[in-house]
């Protein structure tokens, strides 16, 4: 019976010959505004996931994330900010993070509640990145691009700004697929 379920899943989602293709479909994050973001609802859209922090030297990158959101959301790009205190630089509550981002950066992009991103207690999405793709947040504002099929595409460090040529090129390539 288990084999039949796996075969149906493979056929339904085209997972033959790939390592956990559309594995990201199963991931969800609680929204900082209430509710839940489900990757399955974003199927067909590229997702740029960024672990963020409000008290970091890279915090001004929120501006670039909002620029990406403003420029590409209508074409399908999802820019998901994932606040985390795993590097000790996030405010103490989701309400404080939401207020800080609204007041200082006028953010309208999707944002999760404060989330664990590092092992051993990493959110399942970050565990999947590490386990399946050897991609881990090394610091705040690490960036991870997932394509419209749910496959990991590429990652960038904190040093790569959201509006860098490398990220813009990768985003535009994925939007064109």
3D structure, described in words:
By secondary structure, the protein is α+β, with helices and mostly antiparallel strands. It has one domain (18-176): Glutaredoxin, CATH 3.40.30.10. It is 33% helix and 15% strand. It contains five helices and six strands; from the N terminus they run H-E-E-E-H-E-H-H-E-E-H. A four-stranded mixed sheet has the order 4-3-5-6, with helices on one face. Strands 1-2 form a two-stranded antiparallel ribbon. Helix 2 (61-72) links the parallel strand 3 (47-52) and strand 4 (78-83). The longest helix is centred in the N-terminal third of the chain and has 12 residues, at 2-13. The N and C termini lie far apart (36 Å). Residues 1-22 have low confidence and may be disordered.
Query: How much of the sequence is in beta strands?
Result: 15-25%
Q: Largest sheet at a glance?
A: 4 strands, mixed
Percent of residues in helices comes to 25-40%
| Radius of gyration, CA atoms, in whole angstroms | 16 Å
| Head-to-tail CA distance between termini | 36 Å
Which helices and strands appear, and what pairs or packs with what?
Blueprint (H helix, E strand, L loop, with lengths): L1 H12 L14 E3 L5 E3 L8 E6 L8 H12 L5 E6 L10 H12 L18 H10 L9 E4 L5 E5 L8 H12 L1
Parallel strand pairs: 3-4
Antiparallel strand pairs: 1-2, 3-5, 5-6
């Amino acid at each position: 019976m288990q084999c039949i379920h796996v075969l149906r899943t493979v056929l339904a989602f085209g997972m033959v010959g790939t390592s956990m293709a559309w594995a990201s479909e199963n991931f969800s994050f609680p929204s900082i505004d209430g509710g839940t973001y489900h990757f399955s609802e974003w199927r067909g859209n590229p997702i740029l996931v960024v672990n963020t922090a409000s008290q970091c030297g890279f915090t001004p990158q929120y501006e670039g994330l909002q620029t990406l959101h403003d420029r590409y959301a209508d074409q399908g790009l999802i820019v998901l900010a994932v606040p985390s205190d795993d590097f000790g630089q996030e405010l103490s509550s989701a309400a404080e993070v939401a207020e800080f981002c609204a007041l200082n950066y006028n953010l309208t992009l999707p944002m999760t509640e404060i989330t664990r991103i590092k092992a051993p207690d990493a959110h399942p999405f970050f565990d999947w990145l590490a386990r399946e793709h050897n991609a881990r947040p090394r610091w705040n504002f690490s960036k991870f691009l997932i394509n419209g099929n749910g496959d990991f595409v590429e990652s960038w460090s904190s040093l790569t700004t959201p509006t860098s040529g490398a990220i813009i090129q990768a985003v535009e390539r994925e939007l064109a697929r």
